[in-house]
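Key idea: predict the complex, not the pieces.
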Amino acid sequence: MLITRATEYALLSLDYIRKSDSPAGAEQLSEELNIPKSFLAKILQNLAKKEILVSKKGAKGGFILQKKIKDITLFEIVTAVEGRPAMVFDCTQYIDTCPNNGAKNCTISPFLTNFQKKIDALLRSLSLEDIIGE
Amino acid sequence: MLITRATEYALLSLDYIRKSDSPAGAEQLSEELNIPKSFLAKILQNLAKKEILVSKKGAKGGFILQKKIKDITLFEIVTAVEGRPAMVFDCTQYIDTCPNNGAKNCTISPFLTNFQKKIDALLRSLSLEDIIGE
DNA sequence: GGTAATTAGAGTAAAATTGTCTTAAATTAT
DNA sequence: ATAATTTAAGACAATTTTACTCTAATTACC
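Result:
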């Protein structure tokens, strides 16, 4: 799966948040969107760390958007939530057993790297506005 | 991960097989490419079932290509090896807890479906020749 | 017939994802 | 100030997916 459930939850939350007048709390989002609360809280925290959301603590706290939806890319969201860009493949994991000693003599490495770049570019080109509409 | 290790093993094997004069056996491929034998055997079986490889049993048996490399798409390979097309996302899994009762009122479903189609088209447009060269 | 190879299916192990819990820190309202 | 509310952080547990193994059967060559 290129995009995990966590990212799907993030997209749904971001759509809810941008439609909300006041800060939306984790509990509220959890109930409205039927997403496990503690899990969602983590996701929202990650979005806040990466400057996609602003978090407000205390009573009447919650989350609001930090940027316009056209200025938030899918690449940013995925990276924030999953802790790394969406990966197409990962032969780097077993580079130690690679019979070609890494990418140097690998027949498929150049292709896969290129493919990854294409997906990255696609994700960077898509804004939250593209996804959830204006 | 859009493409699993099994598909990577398939690509490496296909490259080896197409360079080989005689049928390449699972054991040989396993040793040359440093891939666990039993795991690889399953992958090769799947490629054979989906008419990408021809399998020859018995002594001097092994696998040979069934088509030209320009006529084998990455989509075919992934589908054969992983048992389904490469998935971009999967909210269908938890459709029962979806607050929008499935895709009908979902804010992100149209986008995700569209995104999936783009990836499918990309995978269908790429031949094995594109990946491993002529 | 005997050996070399694939086929088939169940089963195990490891890793990643998803989800929970508990405690602390910050902010607001009273 | 104090209580109530809400985020922050981190450890932990459950689930799912991926990766891999094993055994027995089948097929084909010599």
